[in-house]
Amino acid sequence: MSEQLTRPWEKQRDKLNKLELLKLERDGLEIIEKIKQVARQGYTAFSEDDLTFFKWAGIYEQRPKGNGLFMMRVRIPSGVLSSEQARTLAAISRDYGRDLVDVTTRQAVQFHWLCTECLPDVFDRLESVGLFSYQACGDVPRTIVGNPLAGIDPHELIDTRPIVEELERHFLLNPEYSNLPRKYKTSISANIYNTGHAEINDLAFTPASKEIDGEEVIGFHVWVGGGLSAKPYLARQLDLFVRPEEVVKVASGVTRIFRDYGYREKRHHARLKFLVADWGAEKFLAKLLELIGPMPGRGTDRTVGWNAGYFTGVHKQKQPGLNYVGLLLPVGRMTADDLDELARLADQYGNGELRTCNSQNILIPNVPDEKLDALLAEPLLSKLTPFPRTFIGHAVSCTGIEYCNLAIVETKARMLSIAHWLDENVELDTPIRLHINGCPNSCGQQQIADIGLQGAKVKTENGMIDAFDIHVGGSLGPDAAFNKRLKGRVPAERVAPVIAHLIEYYKANREPKEKFHQFVRRVGHDALQNQLDQILATTA
Amino acid sequence: MFLYKLEVITESAGSYVAVVIGESDEKAFAYAESQLNREYLVPPKIHEISLVEKKYLQKGKGYIIETASL
Ligand code: SF4
Prior knowledge:
The complex is a heterodimer. By secondary structure, chain A is of the alpha+beta class. Chain A has 4 domains: 3-79 and 101-128, Sulfite Reductase Hemoprotein, domain 2 (Alpha-Beta Complex); 149-301, Sulfite Reductase Hemoprotein, domain 1; 313-388, Alpha-Beta Plaits (2-Layer Sandwich); 393-538, 2-Layer Sandwich (Sulfite Reductase Hemoprotein, domain 1). Chain A has 16 helices and 21 strands. In chain A, strands 6, 7, 8, 9, 10 and 11 form a 6-stranded mixed sheet that branches. Chain A has a 5-stranded antiparallel sheet with strand order 1-2-5-4-14. A 5-stranded antiparallel sheet of chain A has the order 3-15-16-13-12. Chain A is globular. Chain A starts with a helix and ends with a helix. Chain B is an alpha+beta fold. Chain B is built from 1 helix and 3 strands. The longest helix of chain B is centred in the middle third of the chain and has 13 residues, at 25-37. Classes of the chains: A alpha+beta, B alpha+beta. Chains A and B meet through β19 of A and α1 and β3 of B. The complex binds iron/sulfur cluster. Iron/sulfur cluster binds next to loops of chain A.
């Protein structure tokens, strides 16, 4: 707390935005206690400033603002969820959230339709099973994303669950970190296929090894300053090797740098990426070592590729005789009954655990060989299938206009219809990842998609219609790069056939085993632009 | 109330970004067209007008618009 009292940024109040001044007056986390005390009196019991701090409790006002209904996000660090926790989430959704449960692109769970009066009860129910919405939004460390296969993964160097748990305990409700300049996203994964999406987090730990005193030590490399939103940046790697037991020390140092040196003048220029861009990786590292003491330099990167979180199907675990079964949640949405049933299946066929994925899907781990057939015959699996068709199996969507105040267009239903159309009309042997955003804020992470869609509204003779900008060629991992926009806004009704045309062009001209993003980079953006121009020149 | 950003492509007078305050998406289109028309004696025909972003109307909110030259 002593460091909180000195607060270096306080010295230059004229360089602080309005919210920063408010954040000096009150600790964002105090809103949690106030909600517990006052929410039963209803929405009007809260001031406008209170409502601003609701984010620190993981709550946003649902669209339209002002009617006392909320979206709540729940932290699921590394996606690890027990059946008891799943049942609690299902019950909250059933009692207060109109039966909806959404899984997000950061493995969290979201409810909609929560009323003001129910919030204390929801907090209590979550706390009783060790779940928290606290710090799921706001200028604080958000939930830690990680390897959804941690502990069962044949492709992980070490089990990252204890590290994630330790850092989660360190970050959660810690007043040292309750006033950061902006949101702060962390990723920890030891999977060699970058399941933690390292490059788009403010702070990321990726698998590495280093020979120290003649012995090979497994640990992590550290990346800082990544993030999407309207101005996407890929994180930069520091010249640092971190042993597993030092992750919390390093995370704490990076977070304190962000807290004390991060920018607080303009909200759109406050994420860690702006400080990293100004300082560069070397200066950032020097400051970090000043805070945490000397550390060994970088070792060997062990990341060899990228799996964007797609684990549908039946797969062998590293434990002989055990399997995990990845299920499709179409665009991340399920009902309370689905989640209850998933909890039952996890108890009956697995070890009572579920894992959420940043592809907005879910998996049941620890299923013994002899129970697989019976699990695959369960009725729920004909709805949440482990064997989805290609496009629906690789489709990600943000919340969109249904509940989001900033959305320009509807997204989830749109993505479902696009993916289903493509599955009916396009044969494809290499998955193509489709992402959709309802506005430039990029909760749907469209910049990392093979084909990303960003919504706009276009005025036509027949009124306003939804339309989309198409972006092509994004990926993370060893060849990480964001996708790029093709010029020409496509009316929503034409998006699926336009994508089909681009895919046929890819199929006809690709090299053996070439993925879509690799193809785009080889043939060049202009080649894809030509294709789009040709299609748009024809009438629908 | 929102601060809207719209992109306007005209048939004969180039492309514009319009920034308007409005209470709904529909109104934002109307305000953008009206602002554009004020710039001309004979308003250009609009080829395409799209709403691409909206922000809550608050002090300090705005958009940075890239231009080829100033
Ligand atoms: S990307 Fe935009 S529309 Fe989609 S959920 Fe985020 S803020 Fe809302």
